[in-house]
Amino acid sequence: MESIIDQSCPICSSKKGLKLYVHISEIPYFGEHTQMTMMCDSCGWKNTDFIPAEGKKPGSWSLRINNVEHMSARVVRSSSCTIRIEEIGLEVEPGGNSSGYITNIEGVLNRFSDIVKMILRQARRDGEETVENCMLLLEKIYQIKNGEREVDMILLDPMGHSQILHDDAISRELLEDELSDLEIGNSIPVFDINSEEIL
After folding, report:
1. Could you tell me which residues come within 8 angstroms of residue 62 by beta carbon, excluding any fewer than 6 positions away?
2. What is the pLDDT of residue 143?
3. Low-confidence ranges of the chain (pLDDT < 70)
4. pLDDT at position 130
5. Which helix (H) or strand (E) holds 121?
6. Domains of the chain and any CATH numbers
7. H-state helical runs in the chain
8. What is the per-residue pLDDT across 164-177, written as a single tens digit (0 to 9) for each?
9. Euclidean distance between CA atoms 43 and 64, whole angstroms
10. CB-CB neighbours of 82 under 10 Å
């Protein structure tokens, strides 16, 4: 379903309205999810999120990555999810441009690697000492992907929409003190079809 929302773009402030695409599908092993994507035709801003059909409680999923087989474990990351790999000091929090995605553990590691490479390019241009730290992080990510380093990947989602699909993955509810420390990021507005108002 496609519709236009009478709301200005959060990035370029265009008043043309945002396009909202809603697609409901069955994600194997995860159940029914609604994929909601908002887009601005003026600047190209895009935000995607995945919302499960069943209500969820704030939750955490973790997986001890200790072999190459774990690279294929499926991950659903909502736009409200924080991902941590504490052993090597990596964390990504939801922000203004945070988007949800479906990938696997290797895909999450590739996203971390891409960010580190971007910082590395900037550090090389600026002649910063950050270059060595970036090179060490890239080596550690490479070792994780090749089963040479054990780490825990942790998903913390105050909305409860994120999951890791693997027999070794562990889920639990988030504690109150954890919830207060987590960012939520931008969220796609939810609409009540009957009242046509934003909730």
Report:
1. 152, 153, 154, 155, 164, 169, 170
2. 97
3. 27-31, 52-56, 96-97, 185-199
4. 87
5. helix 105-126
6. 2-198 (2.60.120.1040)
7. 105-126, 130-145, 176-181
8. 999 999 999 998 88
9. 40
10. 23
CB count within 10 Å of CB 50 equals: 22
Phi, psi of 154 (to 5 degrees): -120, 130
As a whole number of angstroms, the distance between CA 125 and CA 108 comes to 26
What pLDDT was estimated at residue 89?
Answer: 94
31 class by beta-carbon count within 10 Å (0-12 exposed, 13-18 middle, 19+ buried): exposed
CA dihedral 78, 152, 114, 122 (to 10 degrees): 110
Q: Please answer whether residues 116 and 183 qualify as being in contact, where contact means their C-beta atoms are separated by less than 8 angstroms.
A: no
Please give the pLDDT value at position 190: 44
Q: Which residue has the tokens 């079809």?
A: 193
What residues contact 106, with CB distance under 8 A and at least 6 apart?
71, 72, 145
pTM: predicted TM-score of the whole model, two decimal places: 0.71
| Lookup: tokens for 140 | 């550690």
Q: Which residue has the tokens 């910082």?
A: 119
